Amino acid sequence: MSNTDPEKRDDLLIDDSEPEIVTLLDENDDEHRFELIGACNDGGCQYFALIPEGSADEDGGFEEYIILKQIINDDGTEDMVEIEDDDEFDRIAAKFDEAFDSETEYD
Predict the structure, then answer these.
(1) Quick one: pLDDT at residue 62?
(2) How many whole angstroms separate alpha carbon 24 and alpha carbon 31?
(3) Contact, 47 vs 40, CB < 8 A?
């Protein structure tokens, strides 16, 4: 990826500037740090594409990423959770894959 400003395509945001770091807790309350590489809205829900902090190659590229869905709890707090519905996951993954593929520069 080569942009220096966030790029917005429809409901998809890809940010190639300084990475935003997100700290998430797993089921054992262990902290894991991720770089936010993209976000999108679909059907009124917010989704995020993340890679483990520091896992990008020297050009900022990556081979794999995870997708999490933002939920709002009853108390108003926000969480990021795995997408459990296969069709929903496939739809969102296709959006991110298409966007990340179009970001690739070829020499």
Answers:
(1) 85
(2) 6
(3) yes
